[in-house]
Structures are given as C-alpha cells and as structure tokens.
Amino acid sequence: MDGTRHELVTPRGTVRADQVLVATSGYTSRPFRWHQVRIAPVGSFIIVTEPLGKDVCDTPLPNRRMASNSLNLLNYLRITPDQRLLFGGRARFAMSNQQSDAKSGRILHKAMTQVFPQLRTRASTTAGAAWST
Fold first, then answer.
1. What angle do CA 34, 17, 133 make, to 5 degrees?
2. Which stretches of 13-98 are assigned E, i.e. beta strand?
3. Mind listing the pLDDT tens digit for each residue in 76-132?
4. Are the beta carbons of 76 and 91 closer than 8 angstroms?
5. HSE toward the beta carbon, residue 14, CA cutoff 13 A
6. How crowded is residue 72: how many other Cβ atoms within 10 Å of its Cβ?
7. N or C: which end of the chain has fewer CB within 10 A?
8. For the segment 13-34, what is each residue's pLDDT rounded down to a tens digit?
9. Short-list 10, 46, 43, CA closest to 27
10. Considering Cα of 86, then 91, then 94, then 99, what sign does the dihedral take?
C-alpha cells in the first residue's frame, strides 16, 4: 500500500477507505467517464428447447453443471430445472429487434445442433430472447 486514502462523499456522510471498488455495467455514464470509454455492452442471446426429460438431459450434462466452449464467440449451456437445454452466446453484433433476434435464434440453433445433433428437432428456431451482459 502506498498510503493513498480515498474519500467518498455520500448524502449520508463521508467514508474514507484505502481501496474502492467501482461496480458498474456496460451502460456506465458520468461521473465515471474513464470507465465509460473502456467498457462496452455485449449482447448475448439464448434459445431453450422444449422439456427433454431426464434421460435426454443426462447425455450432454449428467452432473447438471453449466458448461461453455472456448471459442472467441463462446457458447454456454445448462439444463433448466424443468429439463430444458438452455443454449446461449453472442450470435450477432446487431441492435435488438424482432428480425435480428430471430436471426440470432437461428444461428444459435445451428450451433446447438452441431454440438448436439440429437436435438435438431427439439428447439424452436424462432426462440431468440435478448440478454445483455
């Protein structure tokens, strides 16, 4: 420690601390300009299958852990409590709208069925829901 102390002034009083953690999001604005120009919101999309049943769910994730791959535009997946496969990722770099989200859903469906060909008929290709992370 170099002895620097921070002073945070709040409506309820002043706090002095050796370290300060700034927890923010991709939509950071003033007064955190330094962070604002360094953080970018990244869209993520998900699709979900119909309920699959325990036997089908045991094949890809027998221990029910969340999983992801190591691709640059990674995909992630998990089994939901009602036995569906949730499959997500950064399908496209586009603003969210009905047509764009549907296209993202189709891209994710293709990626999911490349990993799990047995699910080819088990997920709607129009089931794109936008998530922002």
1. 40
2. 13-17, 43-48, 67-68, 75-79, 85-89
3. 999 999 999 999 998 777 777 888 888 888 889 999 988 888 887 655 443 433 333
4. no
5. 4
6. 5
7. N
8. 999 999 888 887 777 777 788 8
9. 43
10. negative
